[in-house]
Specification:
Radius of gyration: 21 Å
Number of strands: 7
Strand content: 5-15%
Helix content: 25-40%
Structural class: alpha/beta
Strand order of the largest sheet: 3-2-1-6-4-7-5
Largest sheet: 7 strands, parallel
Length: 227
């Protein structure tokens, strides 16, 4: 089965029409994103989804993965994922988590770890959570135990006293980048569990930037050095 990424349009009966307006009764234009049905003979390759080949692929995926099944895409990503992980505290149901998952997919993180509340708002992920491994930890203690057992240093991202600007900080090739919530930032327990604390240099008047934006900046910096 396919995993459509685009919202389903409202049925015709739910749309107000004006019989005096000819443009209202005209058929809706075909979507301009994605690709239509596969032209010509279908490829003999198990990675391709027959339903997508027949109907077209409107998903939010790069062109190299057009018409592939979700399972085939995940398997291909798994073969080349980067060795950094991303972790986010989720004590207050942070709305940034979906966007962070989406960025983790874009920068090919090994896995995303959500600490605290299990539920999170998936809207910002734009369905990328189907292609990105996400693991839950009940609290900082269980997350820290996992990181220690996996031999991964935890690099906290927060603009607290003693933090090192990201352009001068050490970002190990294999590590966990740990982000806090919008507003309160990282908890004292999370900061204590980190082997280093990194901040993003800012040049304006605001004290902090959006948590999802901060995560994207640091993931990009990791990729700039190691990818």
């Amino acid at each position: 089965m396919t995993d459509a990424d685009e919202p389903t349009p409202a049925p015709e009966s739910a749309v107000e029409t004006d019989p005096t307006d000819a443009t209202r009764s005209a058929p809706a234009p075909a979507p301009t994103h994605g690709v239509g049905p596969w032209p010509g003979e279908w490829p003999d390759d198990p990675r391709y989804d027959p339903e997508l080949l027949a109907e077209g692929d409107r998903r939010n995926v790069v062109d190299d993965y057009r018409y592939w099944t979700m399972e085939a895409i995940v398997a291909d990503l798994d073969a080349k994922r980067h060795p950094f992980h991303v972790a986010i505290e989720n004590w207050q149901h942070d709305l940034n988590i979906g966007s962070i998952v989406r960025s983790a997919n874009a920068f090919l993180a090994a896995e995303v770890h959500i600490i605290g509340k299990r539920r999170w708002n998936r809207r910002g992920a734009m369905v990328t959570d189907r292609y990105q491994h996400v693991r839950h930890h009940e609290d900082v203690e269980t997350f820290t135990a996992w990181a220690r057992g996996s031999g991964l240093p935890v690099i906290a991202i927060d603009n607290v006293e003693g933090s090192v600007p990201v352009n001068r900080a050490e970002l190990p090739e294999a590590c966990v980048l740990l982000f806090g919530q919008e507003g309160p930032g990282l908890s004292p327990e999370a900061l204590a569990a980190a082997s280093a604390v990194v901040e993003i240099t800012q040049y304006g008047s605001t004290r902090s930037i959006n948590a999802a934006s901060a995560a994207a900046v640091v993931m990009y910096e990791w990729c700039r050095r190691w990818a």
